Amino acid sequence: MNTALIDPALASCLQRFVQLDANTPTPNLDYVQRRRLLSELQARTLRTQPLPGISVHNHYVTEEGREIALRSYMPSAQATGETLVWLHGGGWMVGSLDTHDDLCEHLAHYTGHTVLSVHYRRTPENSFPAAVDDAQAVLRWLYQMQGVLPFACQKVLLGGDSAGGHLALATAVRAVQTPQDAHAHIQALLLLYPCIQPAQDNDSMRRFAQGFGLTGAAMQQYWDVLGGADENLRTPSLCLDALPLLPPTVIMTASHDVLRDEAEDFAHQLQALPQGPSVCLQRAEGMVHGFARILVSSPAARQHVYTACSLLEQVRATCA
Questions:
Q1: In sequence order, which residues have a C-beta less than 8 Å from that of residue 255 and are 6 or more positions away?
Q2: Is 79 exposed, middle or buried (0-12, 13-18, 19+ CB in 10 A)?
Q3: pLDDT tens sequence across 110-125
Q4: Among the listed residues 151, 147, 81, the one whose alpha carbon sits nearest the alpha carbon of residue 111
Q5: Buried/exposed code over 297-316 (b: 16+ C-beta within 10 A; e: otherwise)
Q6: Contacts with 227 (C-beta within 8 Å, 6 or more apart), sequence order
Q7: pLDDT tens-digit map of 14-69
Q8: Is the pLDDT of residue 189 over 60?
Q9: How many CA atoms lie within 13 A of 56 on its CB side?
Q10: Contact 167, 202 (CB under 8 A)
Q11: Which residue among 21, 46, 162, 208 sits deepest, i.e. has the most Cβ atoms within 10 Å of its Cβ?
């Protein structure tokens, strides 16, 4: 693990993960099963006491042939009455409600919004755009459940980290492309170090391809497994007709991350649109990919997530 110039607390956590990986033999598990197991074990090693003042409940959205598991995080004090729908990261393959408990609790604490974490269908069992279908089903459910659940409303915020950021963007693009669908309207996007396009060849992909957590090879494997019946939506940054109609957007990248440059290039692409959305781009210095989901290990990581939440409110205020 190359820890030069990385926040020391974050670097220490990553070293613990490397040791956990080495100390967890799983001869009978395939690659996907092992990555999922390790992500859950990582979350357990970090999990301490839940944040006070956050009420947590599980919910289920029923769709034909499947159920979508959700977890709500409702602040009991200084609540805004708004809802932030969150799509977890994990290369579309890994991650769960449990792996992102800490992050979602902190998002609720920092924003005052109810955060609704979505466990969408993952690859390789489910090809793209199954996860986007699930996100869209949740937006419909929130629209339909107005007056039944306290966090169900007509307007929501939408966000995600890593692959979840890609899914949030794809979901927002689909909402622009199909405005006739009855669902909760997306007011703003919060994208933390999102995946944008496969097969990137840029400075960050070359500089941080090894030794900083997420590798370039692993990222390409995630893209290969993603599949996709809808090639257009699979790369939502190329849906040029929809981009000007996106809601206000905050994009936060990590300084030492293979995905840094592609996410920042996309932010600049949006900012250059003549009639495009309001976009705020922020780079988190000293951070590696995935810092938000392990924020309890690093005060600096928590500060960056707090900053992202503050920027979300600022970018919305400029468009009010």
A1: 5, 283, 284, 285, 286, 287
A2: middle
A3: 999 999 999 999 999 9
A4: 81
A5: bbebbbebbbebbebbbebb
A6: 123, 124, 127, 128
A7: 999 999 999 999 999 999 999 999 999 999 999 888 899 999 999 999 999 999 99
A8: yes
A9: 17
A10: no
A11: 162
Band (pLDDT 50/70/90 cuts) for residue 194 is: very high
| Integer Cα distance of 120 and 133 in angstroms | 9
Predicted pLDDT of residue 132: 97
User: Which pLDDT does position 289 carry in this prediction?
Assistant: 97
Kindly report the length of the chain.
320
Print the SS3 string covering the chain. CCCCCCCHHHHHHHHHHHHHHHCCCCCCCCHHHHHHHHHHHHHHHHCCCCCCCEEEEEEEEEECCEEEEEEEEEECCCCCCCEEEEECCCCCCCCCCCCCHHHHHHHHHHHCCEEEEEECCCCCCCCCCHHHHHHHHHHHHHHHCECCECCCCCEEEEEEECHHHHHHHHHHHHHHHCCCCCCCEEEEEEEECCCCCCCCCCHHHHHCCCCCCCCHHHHHHHHHHHCCCCHHHHCHHHCCCCHHHCCCEEEEEEEECCCHHHHHHHHHHHHCCCCCCCEEEEEEEEEECCHHHHHHHCHHHHHHHHHHHHHHHHHHHHCC
Distance CA 165, CA 31 (A): 23
Q: Say if residues 123 and 228 touch (Cβ distance below 8 Å).
A: no
Largest CA distance in the chain: 55
pLDDT at position 78, please?
Answer: 78
Place of tokens 């290969």: 224
